[in-house]
Amino acid sequence: MVIFDRSRANIGSALLKEAEAITPGNVKHFVLEDFCERPMTELPKEIGAETPWANVSFWATDTLKGEISARMHYIEKILKYARHGHMPRITEQIMEDGMCSDYSQIYKVTMKVTEAVKRAGKIKVTNPAGSNLEVELNPNWRWKPCHGLYHTKGEWGNLPEGETFTAAAKANGVMVIDLLGDFFDKKYGILTDSPVRIKVRNSRADVNNIETKNQELKKELQEYLKTDENSNRFGEFALGTNIFLKKLIANLLQDEKFPTVHCAFGNPYSDDTGANWQSRTHVDGIMLNSSVWIDNKKIMENGKYLLQPEN
Q: Which residues of the chain have a pLDDT value below 50?
């Protein structure tokens, strides 16, 4: 089953062509605008009703403000029956870049990093821009390696892949963010001239004291982080593991896989991590050139891993 929208019809058609070559006559597709208005406030019933039919699924659409909840609903439904490739804001550039990475190598790097961090108690992150973050982990919460090799029902990832993530039990410090997720990356791009500085106190973003030169961005981010009671709560902690990416492209779908640190406020992906709280929102923040210490052992320096993948 392939879901795409009119803006991604070229990519949707390419996915359909390849799927038909593998399972002739056994492919269904849905064009979002045929079933709902955009922005999509909820998953179209017609699409939800077909999820039990599929055993492989792709979602290849643009992302619009307010649609993240509907996309999360689709993922929850489809994983009961299928393995899934999630591709919000996929572009031809990404199809020819991150999607063409060597996933056997990404698998090795991702699993090596996951092995190094999965029993960690504390993590420290710094970068030259001024990030200085300390994160405490819950030993009962899980790390989720996202390596791109999804062969079993219930497995999924945001393609292109390359990261490992968990939920933070506690976080304090400062994040200086070079790129924001959800709809912010599309609207504001790479924040070279107006990075966002967020203080984190007891796992909460200090929403009233966000710093950035872009006042429109500041206002919109403050509103976003007040959406629900946990929208400003420090949720995801992640390490990008796609070592083949050379630069940010202002598209979080690929950029969050860049080898550095990204963290998110909001939904902690409880099904994957075991975290015991929820939020309707999730906004990532990428901190370039990060250095990372796991229980005082340095595993990354200025965005370069100090761990070597096994042969």
A: 309, 311
